[in-house]
Amino acid sequence: MKKITPEPSIIAADPAHIAEEVKKCEAAGVKMLHIDIMDGHFVPNLTYGPSMVAAIRKVAPKMELDVHLMIYQPFDWIEQFARAGANHITFHLEATEDLEDTIAFIRRCNLGVGIALRPETSPTLLLKYLDKIDRVLIMTVNPGFGGQEFMEEMLPKIQFFREKCDMLNIPISIQVDGGINLATGKKCVKAGASHLVAGTSFFKAPDYKQMYEDLAALGK
Ligand code: DX5
Ligand code: ZN
Fold first, then answer.
1. Which residue owns the Cα nearest ligand 1 atom 1?
2. Minimal CB count within 10 Å: which of 38, 76, 89, 144?
3. What CATH class has 5-219?
């Protein structure tokens, strides 16, 4: 029995009804919500800024907000997202040369810190930071858009991190993001993932509570 944390990704919710959707997530038992921040440069799409995180924080004061930065120069935005009410900040390894400083600053803000890897990024580049972070985010689609198809070839990358972390006794969580549904989520859990980000599959589900429970039960 493994503890699985499903994380609905708000990018797939109806943008005209974010507050209601967040409330529905809360009622469905969601503990952690994933918020995708895109800058139109690091990825070919734009989403939200810190004010959206602040608005969600207001609607759901107890929800853990997991902010996924798909932006260049993430360091410059950490303080604003921290003030807005983020609990975790994940930035991309490819987005900055100041990895150490960015990790340290997120910590100084008292937030959980994660590093994300695009599908084409080699997992070995992250090894020397593994003991400094709380989670690794393995992108299972090319970042930028919801609703894409899961990349099966990412499964060995998940396994690679699971094995390394177990071997070195590093207790970080392994998060997957992109194209996750009950079938692909199961494969990821088997490969060693503990956090499942689900956008389309969650917000298109007829019953959020059932979907949340089904995702969480993939660890059984
Ligand atoms: C992709 C984002 C994901 C994505 C999830 O760049 O980081 O969070 O929107 O959406 P689905 O589950 O629809 O792939
Ligand atoms: Zn994401």
1. 143
2. 76
3. alpha beta
H-helix or E-strand spanning residue 185: helix 182-191
pLDDT, tens digit (0-9, with 9 covering 90-100), for 52-109: 999 999 999 999 999 999 999 999 999 999 999 999 999 999 999 999 999 999 999 9
Contact 28, 60 (CB under 8 A): no
- Is the shortest distance between the CB of 185 and ligand 1 below 6 Å? no
178 beta partners: none
User: Which residue, chain included where needed, has tokens 């088997």?
Assistant: 190
Q: Which ligand is nearest to the CA of 188?
A: 1
Q: Both tokens of residue 58?
A: 């207001």
Q: Tell how far CA 11 is from the center of its chain.
A: 12
The catalytic residue positions are: 36, 177
What does pTM read for this prediction?
0.98
35 alpha carbon – ligand 1 mean position (Å) = 10
